[in-house]
# Entry
Amino acid sequence: MFRYIIQRIIYSIPIALGVTVIVFSLVYLGPGDPLDAVLPDDATAADVQEIKELYGFDKPLPVQYAIWLGRAVTGDLGTSIGTGQPVTDGLKRAVVNTLILAFFASIFGFTIASVLGIVAGYHHGRWADKVVSTLAITGVSVPNYWLAIVLIIIFSVELNWLPSLGMGPGESAAWTLDWAHMRHMILPMIGVSIISMGIIARSMRAAVAEILNQEFVQTLRSKGLMERQVLRHVVKNAAPTVMAVTGLQIGNLMGGSILIETIFAWPGTGFLLNEAIFRRDLPVLQGTILVLAMFFVTVNLIVDVMQTSVDPRIRRD
Amino acid sequence: MNTSSETARSTISLPDGVEIPTGALEVRSYWQNVFQRLRRDPVTVTCLVIVLLIILMAIFAPYLAPADPYKASMLKRLAAIGTAGYPLGADELGRDMLSRLIYGGRISLLMGIIPVFVALFVGGTMGVIAGFVGGRTNMLIMRLMDVFYAFPSIMLAIAISGALGAGIGNGLLALTLVFIPPITRIAESVTTQVRSFDFVEAARASGAGSWTIIRVHVLSNVLGPVFIYATSLVSVGIIIASGLSFLGLGVSPPAADWGLMLSTLRQSIYVNPMVCALPGVMIFITSLCFNLMSDGLRSAMDVRL
# Structure
């Protein structure tokens, strides 16, 4: 097992490097010189040259990449064009806030999706299955930013039950686990997790239905196990598949939260990205995407290792 | 898989004029089977019809829209649904919602469908090459795709079009790049399966060249599953494309686009929530129908991915 973990980590390194190459090249995708945004209009050619040297833009691209990567590894993601502050300053708090939302959203989404998926798979083809399947495909097809707006219209505008903006009451930066903060969590959490919920429920349903058809289930039943115990075996066998899907969904959940955070004014990475796009603040865009993508690579690595420890048959060599 | 289309023959004629009835031997072609299954699936057929109607609505928008989608009227700002002359109300500048919704499908559908088709061509080609050639070529292509897979799809789309700047062209490019990796993966895995089938072996043994094998055997078996998978991506494409417009990365105002309309109307939910939710309803219906249609076609065509 230990050897396998090491193997997986080594396999992830080229992918992580590839990710850094893509993120690095983001800045060069856009029109014009990346320096245009920082240079004053009346800059002379000598000024431009000086600033280019200062930022290292005069060096060939591979060298620039190496320097950028070296800095990024040590936690220096450059300076925000918008605020003049180091990118990491704002990013740290935003990442924490996004993770708080993603944590609750994934637990919420995973729990509901699993229960629904198991019920549907167990009652395959019957009305419970049809209801869940309809709900699941609705969840997959719904634009989550629209659902978020509809939730605000219903629960904030019409009923006035739940707040629609921010992470908590007042301007206090610290987030604590209490009702006042959780009230702010409910709507964004639903908005962020809805699509993943549909996808996880669908894969859980398919996995449970398929395993129920296998011969060992018949054996368990003929041994006289109670239905509850049979179901436990079935769920255990469905777990690896669903775990793989869930791992992928955590990434989509964080990606999808970019829009949801904008709607709920949740001060996370999505909010930060939206501002960066609006101001064309490429260092912030680059830094945020890099951190999120690296987080996603790590999550996939962990899921893969966990999956293998649950079911050694699916080892990827 | 591809079966030859044999015509049904209920009797066999022998040379001496005797006919032997063979009622049970009726052979239906693959496509006849597919249509048979589709006929028994009203949901898929309904969705197919709705999708076609939405596409037709977008194409013939100038003939269908009752009013000019760009004509603003200060007096009718955020008029309620059912106001005279404004059957679905008016937006924050007093423009007719019904006409804007009809026009809005044009960009949303284009942004959802074109990238999938381009990606189907590029990703499909790369996947078939990777799967058919195997070895180092496969390694190279698939590892490259793994790197793109490390980004959640919507994040990759936002990152690329955020870096490129707003505009339809940039949005199309971003979405195409997002869809190439998943299509390549599916095409590669199906090609790898097909390559190991006996009939490919037989073709090779009888002297067929690689190109002939790809053209005759591989493509005919790979296209179906990959195409079905691609139709399910259209729904994702429409949601992401509208999401980009929502962030201000797609088209710019005053263009009528569902995502952009939703974004600008968001400020007015306290005044007229029903009207503000309408563009999202259109995105939702379109994406739901594409999804259900893709699901139905998948089971009718008996494709397992």
In short: The two ends of chain B are 13 Å apart (CA to CA). The mean pLDDT of chain B is 81. The longest strand of chain B covers residues 11-13. Chain B touches chain A at residues 143-144, 146-148, 150-156, 158-160, 162-165, 235, 239, 242-243, 246-249, 262, 266, 269-270, 273, 276-277, 279-281, 283-284, 287-288, 290-292, 295 (CB under 8 Å).
